[in-house]
Design brief:
Layout (H helix, E strand, L loop, with lengths): L5 E5 L2 E5 L4 E5 L8 E4 L2 E4 L2 E2 L8 E11 L3 E7 L4 E7 L2 E11 L8 H35 L8 H11 L10 H8 L1
Antiparallel strand pairs: 1-2, 1-5, 3-10, 4-7, 5-6, 7-10, 8-9
Length: about 180
């Protein structure tokens, strides 16, 4: 049975969730793409638990785990020249609610397995193509580099100076050229 909403308890907080909701909760020990189940269901639709609903389960797919924005803690004691500034970034897990189950039903894992397969294929295939394409131009450029000749006399002179390991002379600055003209 697919209910309209449920109230779950996780991380010391209560969340009202429905299918396909994306919520941020306290950090969970799982990886992206894993199926997470919440068995502390306080309410499903019109059924209120005492304290939990028997046989109810909420399944969710873990999307990502990352840090929250910085929360600044600033404490000040008046007329004592006493101030303390501190910051904190809480780890949050983003989950997508896949289904709300009652009557002891098990979550369907097919949706998560399909998502993992598609992610793995899309990540691996472009990486291999990029490596082969990137390696080929480098070898061609290295082979063509010695065959090219310098286009100008200055470039040829600079190339000879570097070949003889002599320090290159700098051209006068443009500002000095303008001053000479005036």
């Amino acid at each position: 049975m697919n209910m309209t909403f449920a109230v779950i308890k996780t991380g010391g907080k209560q969340y009202k969730v429905a299918a396909n909701d994306v919520i941020k909760i306290e950090k969970l020990e799982a990886e992206a793409g894993d199926i997470v189940t919440f068995d502390q269901v306080l309410m499903v639709g019109d059924t209120i638990g005492a304290p939990l609903v028997e046989g109810a389960l909420v399944a969710a797919e873990l999307v990502e785990t990352k840090k929250q924005k910085t929360v600044i803690i600033f404490k000040k004691r008046r007329r004592h020249n006493s101030r303390r500034r501190n910051g904190h970034r809480q780890l949050l897990t983003t989950v997508r609610i896949t289904e709300i189950l009652t009557g002891g039903a098990k979550p369907t894992i097919k949706a998560a397995a399909k998502a993992e397969k598609t992610e793995a294929v899309t990540e691996k295939a472009p990486a291999k193509k990029a490596e082969t394409k990137a390696a080929a131009p480098k070898t061609e450029a290295a082979a063509e580099a010695p065959a090219k000749k310098p286009a100008t006399k200055k470039a040829a002179a600079a190339k000879e100076d570097t070949a003889a390991e002599k320090p290159a002379k700098k051209a006068p600055a443009k500002k000095a050229d303008k001053a000479d003209k005036e």
